[in-house]
């Protein structure tokens, strides 16, 4: 079956935890801004037909100019996002014209074709899929007084990443319903789970980090150097 695949790249956050005073997507990582690493990764995936970038209204022109200078041609729309990531993704989805959509954080620059292939294969077989990695630490549920309430069994704990892959119509429905019910979610899978969909987890890679706090930039520089040395984006492990 021939299917079409689009991507919504959520890049409209303020990067408060990065404490730079500007959107962290524009921080230079190696020789280009973080967001350009992310967009170029999808640009080079042959099965991706369309990329929609969601950024803040004030950064649209800058983002379009960067796409031109880095030769990112699959970007059809650069649109202004919303207050939350969920709002930004919902806005971006309105521009997507493909059967399947990958939702990805602009701040995850090390997404690879190999991981996206596996993700899409699983999503198309089972209906919806997300990348994730088994957690390495012991996880505690802690109450407002700082007292540990519960230690969930680690074997069943995964740290969820992006991309996350869905049928466009189904994800749009999940977003519409969440809006109606005022349900707030930190990822798109949660909205699909809420609608009763089974969402598969596909093993991603520990290097597929989201750049969130300042020390993540050290890790990101090391990952980038390692990948360039290996001459292959996928051979970090
Ligand atoms: N209103 C928002 C908030 C977040 N994002 C995007 O969602 C991704 C994951 O969010 P996060 O890492 O939390 O980014 P920020 O919201 O920028 O960070 P912070 O919470 O520290 O302000 C980022 O690529 C971010 O740009 C978005 O598109 N729209
Ligand atoms: C979607 C996500 O990347 C999954 O890990 C993440 O939840 C989004 O970022 P945030 O830090 O929760 O805003």
From TrEMBL:
Pathway where this protein functions: Isoprenoid biosynthesis; isopentenyl diphosphate biosynthesis via DXP pathway; isopentenyl diphosphate from 1-deoxy-D-xylulose 5-phosphate: step 2/6
Record-linked InterPro entries: IspD, IspD/TarI, IspD/TarI_cytidylyltransf_bact, ISPD_synthase_CS, Nucleotide-diphossugar_trans
Keyword check for Transferase: yes
Superkingdom per UniProt: Bacteria
Catalytic activity: 2-C-methyl-D-erythritol 4-phosphate + CTP + H(+) = 4-CDP-2-C-methyl-D-erythritol + diphosphate
One Pfam family per UniProt: IspD
EC number: 2.7.7.60
Site note Transition state stabilizer, residues: 17, 24
GO MF annotations, alphabetized: 2-C-methyl-D-erythritol 4-phosphate cytidylyltransferase activity
Keyword Nucleotidyltransferase in record: yes
GO terms of biological process kind: isopentenyl diphosphate biosynthetic process, methylerythritol 4-phosphate pathway
Site (Positions MEP for the nucleophilic attack): 154, 210
Keyword vocabulary terms for this entry: Isoprene biosynthesis, Nucleotidyltransferase, Transferase
Function, in words: Catalyzes the formation of 4-diphosphocytidyl-2-C-methyl-D-erythritol from CTP and 2-C-methyl-D-erythritol 4-phosphate (MEP).
PANTHER family on file: 2-C-METHYL-D-ERYTHRITOL 4-PHOSPHATE CYTIDYLYLTRANSFERASE, CHLOROPLASTIC
Similarity comment text for this entry: Belongs to the IspD/TarI cytidylyltransferase family. IspD subfamily.
Protein name (Swiss-Prot/TrEMBL): 2-C-methyl-D-erythritol 4-phosphate cytidylyltransferase
Originating species: Novibacillus thermophilus
């Amino acid at each position: 079956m021939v299917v079409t695949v689009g991507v919504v790249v959520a890049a409209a956050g303020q990067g408060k935890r990065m404490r730079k005073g500007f959107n962290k997507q524009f921080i230079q990582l190696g020789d280009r801004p973080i967001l350009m690493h992310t967009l170029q990764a999808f640009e080079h995936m042959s099965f991706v037909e369309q990329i929609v970038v969601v950024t803040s209204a004030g950064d649209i022109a800058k983002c379009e100019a960067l796409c031109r200078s880095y030769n990112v041609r699959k970007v059809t729309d650069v649109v202004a996002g919303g207050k939350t990531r969920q709002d930004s993704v919902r806005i971006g989805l309105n521009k997507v014209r493909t059967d399947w959509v990958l939702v990805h954080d602009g701040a995850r620059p090390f997404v690879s074709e190999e991981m996206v292939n596996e993700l899409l294969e699983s999503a198309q077989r089972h209906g919806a899929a997300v990348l994730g990695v088994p957690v390495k630490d012991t996880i505690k549920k802690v109450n407002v007084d700082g007292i540990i309430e519960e230690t969930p069994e680690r074997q069943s704990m995964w740290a969820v990443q992006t991309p996350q892959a869905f049928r466009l119509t189904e994800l749009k429905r999940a977003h519409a319903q969440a809006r109606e019910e005022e349900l707030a979610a930190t990822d798109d899978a949660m909205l699909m789970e809420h609608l009763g969909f089974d969402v598969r987890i596909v093993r991603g890679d520990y290097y597929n980090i989201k750049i969130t706090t300042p020390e993540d930039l050290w890790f990101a520089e090391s990952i980038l150097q390692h990948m360039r040395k290996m001459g292959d984006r996928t051979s970090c492990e």
